[in-house]
Amino acid sequence: MNDPERPQVSRRRLVKYAGVGATFVAAGPLAPTAAADEAEVQGRGDSRHRVWRAGDHHVHSEYSGSFDTSVSPPRFTKGADAVYPIVTNAIMAKHFGLTWAMCTDHGGPTHSKVNLELAYPDLLRSRKLVPEVLQFWGMEFDTPAQDHHTLMIPRHDDEAKQLFELESRFAKHDAFPADPGRDTEAKMIEFLKAAKDMRHKPLVIGHHTSRSASGLGVYGQDTPREFRNGNNIAPDVYVGFEGAPGHQAGPLNGGARGGYGNYPTHGGFDQMTARVGGLWDSLLGEGRRWWITATSDSHVHWTRGGADFWPGEYSKTYVLARQDYGDIMDGLRNGRIFVTTGDLITSLDLAARSRDRDAAVGETLHLRKRDRNDVDIEIRFRPLDGKNGNGDRPEVRRVDLIVGNVTGVNANLDADTNPTTKVVARFGPRDWRRQGSEYVIRHTLRNVEQDLYARVRGTNTDEAEPLPDGKENPWTDLWFYSNPVFVRLV
């Protein structure tokens, strides 16, 4: 089980190193990082009591319903698309080990009023009934010119009014009668500009971004250009996309994982994430702080004929944070995230270190160009102690270290590859060493001479690369992914 008071790995001192692929002994707190990294350290806030906390930011309730537009105003009916009350989702999230979750219902004509007058009071009741789960307010935003996105509102007294303002002004389906001018990229940019200027900054994260893609690199509603343009406008609001989309139980009822009926997921992950050197790596290669998450997109459980698992039953987004609304959002905003399916692991720490400096996931290790820089990479993961939602005890068979160069902003807004990104090392059970309840891997990047990032993935399969998904049982094809740690030469 996860130890709620285990200190984060990035705050430990590495005191013994025995070569590439070897493990090390860790003891004692790290001294403050060098002056070049001081501003970043100050920006992290109080890191005490931050542990890996599992959550899900894409969950539907009965307020994902239908609208009768033959009358004015449109008449809303609950439960037409998703069927569970908000509190039921919270109870199941708690049951499957989540400590935070988010209600993200579909919009529609005048849905902003439904959210404000009907759904939000139910959320407040659910917060009282299930206080163990931090329950965020927001929606599955009907994104202008793109597929759906999470719109997560910070917890504050006027959170309901803030969502109402954004949804009523910018959601492409909220206007009645319909307004084609809402469904343009210009409207999306207008929305992001408004969001970034708010006192309480929301978060925007793309959903099932390749579900409409017709092939590998042949994108549909969401394109590399749109991600770049949006991130350029609001880099601290528009921060990433789902690496592993929801609807993962589809094959259990004869469907496709994620509902990806045109071009499939790979190991349950969207092609934009799963393809080494693909779009995600292209964005990271520009130095963008662009993160991935994993969600349930729960509407109807597969045992009732749906394509879904309960929140936390199969996919989890872990955030290194305190059990606090603000710190959970800070972790999501700043990339202190790893994701896993099938509870393959319950913690994952990735750190980069050189001399007396270190950085963890979402952070940057600053080094001097004039030095000869070897960078020690540390990977720590904790396997599941017990059985997952399918009654299995999954085992990690391999861990991959993936590294790519950071070369600066790409003039081609449509670029979706980073040819420098490679799997630089693969580790099996003989390459890691047990320390307490964790496994530890060490690797050294020798003589680093340019900016780079490192990220990690692992699997219970023997696939060298995640293969396109068919109708396999999703419980047999499990993966985890870290977000990146950056190395910058100054």
UniProtKB/TrEMBL annotation:
Q: What is this protein called?
A: Phosphoesterase
Q: What is the lineage of its organism?
A: Bacteria, Bacillati, Actinomycetota, Actinomycetes, Pseudonocardiales
| UniProt-listed InterPro entries | Pol/histidinol_Pase-like (IPR016195), TAT_signal (IPR006311)
Q: Which Gene3D superfamilies match?
A: Metal-dependent hydrolases
What PROSITE patterns does the annotation carry?
A: TAT
- What domain of life? Bacteria
